[in-house]
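Need the bound structure for 6-chloroguanine, inputs here:
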Amino acid sequence: MRINIWTIFPEFFEATLATSILGRAAAEGLVEYRVVDLRGYTHDRHRTVDDEPYGGGAGMVMKPEPFFEARDDLGPEGPVALLTPRGALFDHATAVRYSLAPELTLLCGHYKGVDERVAQVVATEELSIGNYVLSGGEPAALVVIDAVVRLLPGALGNHESAATDSFYEDLLAPPVYTRPAEYRGLQVPEVLRSGDHARIAQWRREQSERVTRWRRPDLWRAYRAAEHEENE
Ligand code: 6GU
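Answer from helper R.:
Posting the output first, comments after.
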């Protein structure tokens, strides 16, 4: 898969895309990252990417031309997501959809926002990673990339599996433990050390349901509703 990132801060991505799972996936050819400097699509001496908002108000707005020219030049295929706090909430289902696409393009906004014509014409969708405001789309782009790349077949090692993640089956993940069996008086639950795989699976399912019910009633309701439909 190819992931294109269009940004005015290409250096933001260097270390992260070369590190850990994201770096290994690229080194193994599972993914190719193409970081594009939007200032490369400006034509004035100051390489201007922003301007004052029509209608007045505080803050600057990102100009449409660099995004449109990047699109004309690079012709991205597949989803083109503009990262903005106005976007739809990014979730596991969206990560799965992107991981199945041959190409994904992420547009990083800045300042007070991006000229709306970019959202209308260049982007196919708008994404937010949560109900708070970041100073730019770059950290959000890295969040999306991490969530997508770890789903690519072969990206996770043997000892890691996307199938046991939180949200994999619309529930939060159960607690996990490693050695020692007792630490500072704190015990690892006996069932996990029993070797009884059926009991362990049942315990994990119960723990997943319990933590989801308490911590994320929104997810719990959706899970229960889906269960209900299945049984109809
Ligand atoms: Cl995608 N961008 C910005 N600037 N702020 C955000 C966001 C994105 N998601 C949550 N807050």
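Comments: Residues 83-85, 87, 127-130, 132-134, 136-137, 140 surround 6-chloroguanine (CB under 6 Å). The chain is about 35% helix and 15% strand.
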